[in-house]
Design a protein that fits this description.
With about 290 residues, the chain is an alpha+beta fold. The chain has five helices and 14 strands. A hairpin with a 5-residue loop joins strand 3 and strand 4.
Length: about 290
């Protein structure tokens, strides 16, 4: 099991806690015993958030939650009514106490809810640049909505206007997954909400949109770099050049270029909010220039 801060440290002791007796399972591990449908929740109520969480967990494919202390403890509460507990120490007394309560604690190799934060690609954070882009898109006249994933398979949708972006931001759930939508359900760009100190510790990930892939590429582009590109169009605004990851513009090329022509350009400015690169034509280095 990986820790919440994104490190590679694992917890060596994992237990599955369940009300289902291991003796009542077939050879494939499937439970075949009787099931008590009484949830035991009568008289317990801890606010609307807890109620929504329980509703989500009791639906097939519903919500689950994760509680973690980096490198020491993890508790995964699944929608399938299993609880997975991980620890950096052998939990003998806790397992005995679990048995006294009429539950079963079984040693496991890992939890199925453990998702490492080392998947391919980089998760875009909902940092100041992200919110500046949201505001710029709203100011450009786009009809946008923000979809907030606050639990697994549980979402809220917030229509965005130039007047309410800060208010919507302030009310988001910790470590929420965010998707900016245009024209109903078309995904523009996504992000995960970092903690108050600015560190991204969310262990779940968004499904990246085209804008997120451009963001990943633009992070590698810096003023002064010389790159090869392909001219995609020539307009009154300037010459647009594809840089194999994002499109840049040469405002005043100073020479005649045609669509389909390869050229060498120098990066002048990278605008992460508008996701554009300002370029100038650069002479091809002696001996040629290796394509990036």
């Amino acid at each position: 099991m990986g820790d919440v801060t994104g490190g590679d440290e694992t917890l060596p002791f994992v237990y599955r806690v369940t009300k289902y007796d291991p003796a009542d399972r077939d050879e494939g591990g499937q439970y075949i015993g009787t099931e008590d449908l009484n949830t035991g929740l009568a008289g317990y109520y801890d606010g609307a958030v807890a109620l929504e969480l329980l509703r989500g967990m009791l639906r097939e494919g519903g919500a689950w939650c994760r509680l973690e202390v980096a490198g020491a403890l993890s508790v995964y509460l699944g929608w399938d009514q299993y609880v997975y507990v991980g620890s950096n120490e052998l939990c003998g007394r806790a397992a005995d106490r679990t048995a006294e309560l009429g539950l079963f604690a079984e040693r496991r190799d890992a939890s199925p809810y453990d998702v490492r934060f080392d998947e391919a690609g980089e998760q875009r954070p909902a940092d100041e640049t992200f919110w500046a882009r949201v505001k710029w898109c709203v100011s450009a006249g786009d009809s946008l909505a923000l979809e907030e994933g606050y639990l697994r398979n549980a979402y809220r949708r917030h229509p965005l206007t130039s007047a309410n972006v800060d208010e919507v931001r302030a009310g988001l759930a910790p470590r929420a997954l965010l998707t900016v939508l245009v024209s109903g359900d078309e995904s523009c760009f996504t992000a995960a909400l970092p903690d108050a100190d600015g560190v991204l510790r969310a262990r779940w990930r968004t499904e990246p949109a085209a804008s997120d892939l451009r963001w990943t590429f633009l992070k590698t582009v810096h003023p002064g770099q010389v790159r090869r590109g392909l001219v995609t169009s020539v307009t009154d605004t300037g010459v647009f050049v594809e840089l194999v990851g994002a499109e840049g513009i040469v405002p005043d090329p100073g020479e005649v270029l045609e669509a389909g022509q390869e050229t060498t350009v120098e990066v002048i400015e990278v605008d992460m909010v508008r996701e554009r690169v300002i370029l100038s034509l650069a002479p091809t280095p002696i001996g040629g220039h290796q394509r990036p």
